[in-house]
Amino acid sequence: ADYNGAFSDGADIQKHINEGYKVLYYEITSPQEMARAIVDATSNEKAHVVLVAGHGTPDSIQFNTRRAEDHELNQENISNLDTYGLNQTLIPKGKGILNSCSAGGCSSQGVANIADLVARAFERKAYAPKTDSQGGAIFEVDSNGIPRKIQFNMDEENGKERAFAYRADPVSSPMSEGQA
Fold first, then answer.
1. What is the distance between the alpha carbons of residues 151 and 110, in angstroms, rounded to a whole number?
2. 3-state secondary structure of 147
């Protein structure tokens, strides 16, 4: 499903394992598989962080090489995931991180971006890059294992972030105001 090798570097996953995270890896091809995988992974213990990776735009996250609605999370189908109970999968201060280019950028449709919609689905803060990220999400964790200082696509030469992070707050996201 990863046609251009964007997620082939396992260093990010290994880093989280070294930090003490229990990492469960799922390869999925649809939003429904994503929801089932998250619910399965958190059935015995709620997660501190859920990291979703896919090829992204402000309007969607693509999970497969086929550009078809059934292989991407988008404005039209995210509400179908409400029945899975994603809002029960994270601890109270847990966070959703979208390792998907531009998922926190301005939507071309003039509505909430995909990060806003994910924040609403999880009822937790979600973080995503505003632009092409071309690299993994980098974050530190506090003493309770909660991600903090979430950044995307760091330039190793100068230590600066190249794809600035967008924080979607479920109580202030456009979808949560008047569109329940």
1. 25
2. strand
CB-count exposure of residue 21 (10 Å: 0-12, 13-18, 19+): middle
Q: How would you classify the pairing of strands 72-74 and 90-99?
A: unpaired
pLDDT in tens, the chain (180 residues): 455 555 566 666 777 788 778 888 888 888 999 999 999 999 999 999 998 888 888 999 988 766 666 788 988 888 888 889 999 999 999 999 988 888 888 887 778 899 999 999 999 999 998 887 766 777 878 888 888 888 876 566 666 666 677 888 876 544 433 333
Integer Cα distance of 85 and 154 in angstroms = 33
For residue 32, count other CB atoms closer than 10 A to its CB: 16
Positions of E strands within 45-108: 47-53, 55-57, 60-62, 72-74, 90-99
| Burial status of residue 101 (CB atoms within 10 A of its CB: 0-12, 13-18, 19 or more) | buried
Q: 72: which strand partners?
A: 62
For the entire predicted model, the pTM comes to 0.81
Query: Would you say 53 and 90 are in contact if contact means Cβ atoms under 8 Å apart?
Result: no
Place of tokens 């109580």: 171
User: Tokens 């609605």 correspond to what residue?
Assistant: 69
Tell me the one-letter amino acid at 76: E
- Helix, strand, coil % in the chain, rounded to nearest 5: 25, 25, 50
